[in-house]
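User: Predict CoB--CoM heterodisulfide reductase iron-sulfur subunit B family protein's structure from this.
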Amino acid sequence: MKYGLYPGCSLNGTGIEYGLSTKAVAQKLGIDFVEIPDWNCCGASSAHNRDHLLSVALPARNLALAEQHGLDQIAVPCAACYQRMKAAEVALRDEPTRREVGEVIEMKVEGKSRTRALVEVFTNDLDAEFLSSVVVRPLSGLKVASYYGCLLVKPAQVAIDSPENPMIMDKLMAALGATPVEWSYKTECCGGSLAITRPEASLGMTANVLKYAKLAGADCIVTPCPLCTSNLDMRQKAAEGLLGMELGLPIYYFTELMGVALGLEMSQLGLTKHFVEATSLLKNTPAAQ
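Assistant:
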């Protein structure tokens, strides 16, 4: 299988473990990701807060580049990048908008390349039966809170699943042998975008997500969003102080848990790069008999 890949600004920076695990898992599964040449920042989230045309033009240039290189489907790991790319794809269906954007980016763009969230590719294009068949270290006994955040399932025009109770990542975790927990905060905002401008409000939102995952009996949280991961991981100690309770919840990218289940080494997946220690919980994962 071949897809275009839009890595965005996080996969080699704050979300480097997402980048490492995505490449390792794709190679293991025989998926060919072709990085869009000369890609640019999609503008999330500063552009759409300032100028609508800019917010469409920035991701539209990436779509135009994908079209030029014959990449019909674009896998996007970052939830924020996915939303901006998908929103541009939708906006380009309008001919006057498409013409105006083409003038701004000085490139022909038709909006024909399809934007796909990476979790959607790994779950919908690889069925559960196949995934279960390639698992060599089932995540048996691991209770996982699947945290989608607010960008993959809202608004409806770009949603990859139900905005109220998405299950796509829960199904993926189940195929890997883990036990998804039921909880009510899976699509609540973690406050990551407010961390600089309104840190107190952000911390309260972060703490709530962590608290309710813990109360649901989760051993860890899994997410497809670099901003959410950084926020829940890096600020977890501060959240413990605010809540007056110990949390100790590793925050994993779904690709990291896929990699472990597929038998890849933890060092390949970036699992040693977390703030909350993330390897101990997985070291007792048994090999399949």
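The beta strands are 2-5, 32-35, 73-76, 114-117, 143-146, 179-180, 220-223, 251-253.
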